[in-house]
Amino acid sequence: MDNIKKAQLIEGPVAKTLFNMTLPMIVGMVGMVTFNLVDTFFVGKLGIQELAALSYTFPVVMVIGSLAMGIGIGASAVISLAIGRGDHYRVKRLTTDSLILSMLLVTFFVIFGLLTIEPFFSLLGATPEIISLISEYMVIWYPGVLFLIIPMVGNNAIRATGDTKTPSAIMLVAVIVNIILDPLLIFGIGPFPMLGMAGAAIATVVARAITLVVAIWVLYYRDRMITFELPPVKTVLDSWKSILYIGLPVAGTRVLYPIAMGVIIALVSSYGHEAVAAFGVGTRIEFFALTVIFSLSTVIGPFVGQNLGAGRYDRVKMGVKYSNVFSLIWGIGMFTILALTARPIASLFNDDPLVISITILYLWIVPIGYALFGVFQISTMTLNVLHKPGHAAVLMVIQMFGLYIPLAYLGSYLFGLKGIFFAIVLAYSLTGIASHFVLKRVLEVGSMVTKE
What we know:
By secondary structure, the protein is mainly α. The chain contains 16 helices and no strands.
């Protein structure tokens, strides 16, 4: 039964290892970004109000996703460390306990979410007509949160072994199902009823449910990372403590992003529904543009964890160096591409001239900060795995509340929407530079401790 993979990331060329891990992760990430873009595309065909309603849900979806990602990253960090040390019992215990923890949190957030739909979205600036559409979507989406969180945590556990192909395949399954069901359920094609926003939510929940089944099957039957052994309560609490030591700061700071986005959307809504719709399109295109960076920042965690567990600090430093250089190159490349193709890309999602023009403005300005945003992602993920989640949390708080929101209000007052978009660039750039130097210092101290 003990078939857990041994540490795969502590030997071989560093650049090649990261490349081999990142490539399949890119495919999976592109699939998941496509998942969101498909929803945006089909809902956009229903009208501007429906597209705006979907954009208003973005902060909530991000909050739930951030909580799941926090637990997943915490689990991946400690699991990869245990794999690097060769502690197979600990790997199984941590994997199982992370899934139990995520199920407990799901129950709370589903109940809370369903009870706060109207007051929360009213706070964001949604009108009663828009809230009606939002409710249509969220009353179905909230109960399906179980199918979002469990596979996300499970996939992070699988990645901790060094396997990024399987999680990517699992994500692609969800994409294919969503692409098929979205038009059928939204527009009522063939024998299916026309459900509009509710149809988009149902398609999402069904697709996620399939990934839940596949992820659990892989963890239990193939990798033997789930155990039904009944441990002492103290053992489970110890697992949760080690996961949450990293996971809570990660989740907390990642929640700040959608909260900040909610504040920004409320600010953008003062410019009309067209501006909110365009902002929603722009942020989704941004996720697609940064897919490679998100993929690299995801795989750097298991790489750092396994090498840290095996005492290979030299490989940790080399992995960070290669990742940062690549992030700078990729960010500059995406800025160039989006600047040249902004109009045709914007026109894909909506035919309203004002929505198109605002989306183009977003794509001309915000990508300027992508290169240093990539450095920020790599640095904060590495800090988390190095058991410095507090450092990463402080950097995130500064980015969101010290720079992003204050600069957005100032920019809006002085320059309108253009000022809001330039505020994003400044927040990305300044914290990217700061995170680089913070991580450099942590690595230098770690190297000296290792030598001693």
